[in-house]
Amino acid sequence: MKKILSLALSFLIVLSCMTFSFASATTEQTEAQKLLDEKKVLIIGNSFVYYGLTVINKKNTVLTQSQRSNDKGYFYQLCKANGINVSVTNWCFASHSLTSLFGGECNVSACNKVKHEDYLTDRYFDYVIISPGNGSLVEKNIASDFEYIMEFFRKANPNVKFVCMGPLAAHGINSNDTFYPGITGYYPTLKEKGVIIADWGKIVKDILKGNCTIPGATQSYLRSSFVVKDNYHPNVLSGYITTLITYCAITGESALAQPYSFYNNTSLNSNFNMDNYVANRYTNGYKDTNFDKIFASPSDMKGIQMLVDRELKANEYNIKATKGDGALNVNSDVSLENTLLVCALYSENSKLSGVKFLNVESNTKTASFYVSNDTWNSAKIFVWENLDYLYPLDEAATINFAN
Fold first, then answer.
1. How confident is the model at residue 382 (pLDDT cuts 50, 70, 90)?
2. Mean pLDDT in residue range 52-77
3. Range with the lowest mean pLDDT among 95-109, 171-185, 243-257?
4. Per the domain annotation, does 13 fall within a domain?
5. How many CB atoms lie within 10 A of CB 268?
């Protein structure tokens, strides 16, 4: 009898150890995931963030930090699905620019000159994610808005990290389809200041403009695949891309195989009811969009995730352009050696003159170019908007225009 009890006890001990070992293995976090675990995140923006459910919409009359804390939108859900416990505060107000939210009284008439920043009673955050919009799309406002916001939160936490979510509106897909080069042109300065760039708008623009193709796509991609019935606010597919590129930009993880099944899981949040969402956001329901079919296609979602990885990999490279005198009239393509990347400063119809390849430093992944004075402005705007189709899918480049 004692022998049987001893064997039973030994079995239970072994089983307990196995169970503990299994539990530890399944909950162990990567070093990348630890960057967000138990961290406080603030997301600043407007309807171009909450329409896609990256955060859950709050009325503009909801002012206090406590009422806007513990947001359970897509950003929170993606973190949770990866075993990350993160606290998200939603500082997104309809029709607001960054200037409306920080730096003085709000200039949105319905807000009655309230100072939104005064309601941020706890200003200690680990990450502040900023989505420029409205007046903040104008170049002269971008610098002052970011400088004010960064100084504002660094007073509470000198080590706070900042992320710029590049909106679709900056890429010419907005209420009047106006291109705003100010934000993308300011990326090099933001990067120098340590700001992480997560340009989800560029990915969607690339797809819609035909500048890139989605590997393994089974669906057609129309504007309505990414925006709601007003033809410019993001839908939940754009919201997922927004969430995904932001998460991966912070953690450094690959976008491939990241979860997305939470997008319509009403047990997580009632706002994820897609029947209600489509009824409210589209005139003729699912007849007006196919985002649900895209989400239902593993091949399409993998392809989108590959494009997110491609966009983020761009941060690994730098291309320096130096302004010079006189036109060079160089019409040949400009390429890096060993297929690090391929970057030709040309459009689909005509090449830019006045651009000359100088050299490449493989160890720093830096390519240098000479750009003539006559070509300088057009080259800056062109490259930022069109580099997407000038390099292979698994290679990329960013531009750092030096004066």
1. low
2. 98
3. 171-185
4. no
5. 17
Domain CATH code at residue 113: 3.40.50.1110
- Burial track 118-152 (b if 16+ CB lie within 10 A, e otherwise): eebeebebbbbbbbbbbbbbeeebbeebbeebbeb
Provide CB contacts within 8 A for 145, sequence distance 6+. 97, 98, 99, 102, 103, 132, 136
Instruction: Say how many domains are in the chain.
Output: 2
Contacts of 79 (CB under 8 A, 6+ apart): 36, 85, 86, 247
Q: How far is it, in rounded angstroms, from Cα 165 to Cα 153? A: 17
* Confidence (pLDDT) at 23: 33
- How much is the pLDDT for 170? 85
How is residue 359 annotated by DSSP? E
Q: Write the DSSP symbol of residue 28.
A: P
Q: What does the chain come to in residues? A: 403
Q: What is the pLDDT of residue 215?
A: 83
Give me the amino acid identity at 371.
V
Look up residue 267 and give its DSSP letter: T
Mean of pLDDT values over 7-17? 40
